[in-house]
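Researcher: Hi, I'm a grad student and pretty new to this. My advisor asked me to get structures for two proteins we've been looking at. I'm not sure of the right format, so I'll just paste the first sequence and hope you can take it from there.
Model: That works fine. Here's the first sequence with its structure tokens right after it:
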Amino acid sequence: MAANIITSEDLEQFKWELLGNIKEYLDKREGKKENQAQDEKVWIKSHQVQRMLGISPGTLQTLRLNGTIPYSKVGGVLFYSKTDISRLLEDNMRNRLED
């Protein structure tokens, strides 16, 4: 059986390769965490949407029925994505000079 001799330079090179691999792994993992955080939605209930928009339950129902506000229904409870509500407000923003 042949013996392999490992020099201190070999160990040094191995160390840097290993550290590079660990850094690459951690960077990928951190990127996934950021993407997951961005993908996570905050869900709010109807009364919170009504308060945010200053609208009545009937107006919220109309916005739901005409497709203006997407929603999810679990049991008898309606949930809305907070990002969808924010996007709705931004999309309908008007310049004061236009009105």
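Researcher: Oh nice, that was easy. Here's the second one.
Model: And its structure:
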Amino acid sequence: MSDDFEFLPHDLVPEDVIDGLTDQVLFEKRPARDDQGNEVSGLYNAWITLNNPSQYNSYTTAMVKKVILCFRAASNMRDVNAVVFTGAGDKAFCTGGNTKEYAEYYAGRPQEYRQYMRLFNDMVSAILGCDKPVICRVNGMRIGGGQEIGMACDFSISQDMARFGQAGPKHGSAPVGGSTDFLPVMIGAEMAMVSGVLCESFSAHKAQRLGLLTDIVPALKVDGEYVPNPLVETEMKTDAFGRILHGEPKTGEALAEGKALMKRGEIDLGALDEAVEALCTKLLLTFPDCTTKTIEELRKPKLNAWNANKENSRAWLALNMMTEANAGFRAFNEGNREVGREVDFISLRQRLAAGEKWGPEFIDSLMPGAGKEAAK
């Protein structure tokens, strides 16, 4: 290459601007490794980490903006092989939008939430449009919006204590930030209904069986040795009715034994990191442009569904902030272990059926524990 050659920059903003944004999203380039585990000179994997572990890596508005810029930057970096998207700690990859911010700022402000959802949509699109393969390193729970941004990734490798699922209809929203687009494509319409409507979460073992994960690895170490998740059935077997038990919760004595084993152990994500690095190496040992083209084509079922629905979903979610989302997010934010974090769904349905209107007093009366206070 000529000594006077200079690359043209294609980033939206300089790297120092990205670095100056919130420290609740971390960006770093880690050396790529060959198939012998040796660092490769001049080539890297970009790691984007949600760094809000005290709130289960839920994303605030500021975090969403930085994630977008980080993915755009990683996509353009000529020395980057793959992008690893993960969360800090071992409790959660991400549990979705920050419910405190939702409840205290966006509830009752549909125009503001509509602008926020533009950012959220751009975050999902930045993942789906990244020119590098994207690996979701699932270090813990992947719930709600966290499940949506996780499914937007190309590969997902999970520690096997993680859980996967949606929370929308239980907390005043609908999973139209990607899950209603991606779930039917990835696991089929019926199981998508179970996850999206009933908000029933899956274990990592079941998530892999259904097709949500590239691979799972153990994370619980007992007496220095990895053991599979002791709370779920990890062997491929069926019950008396022929139903597959793999990945389903244990019950009775087996569950009690599993909980006892968990108390003796500790979480160690070393195996997860090894598996992620191994996948990065597999990607390194391919033609880069052929890999990018293949990924672009294989993303199309998700991308087509996403692009067809994201704008009308954004509008609905904004308007919903006046009613059910207003109540649901506030209930989660204002509730606690004692009174719960959900509204009284039966009372809500009864009162709506009787013609009661939504309004501030109506929403206040739906908060967890409100009925007990009124009865005093």
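Researcher: Is there anything I should tell my advisor about the second?
Model: You could mention this: The first helix runs from residue 15 to 19.
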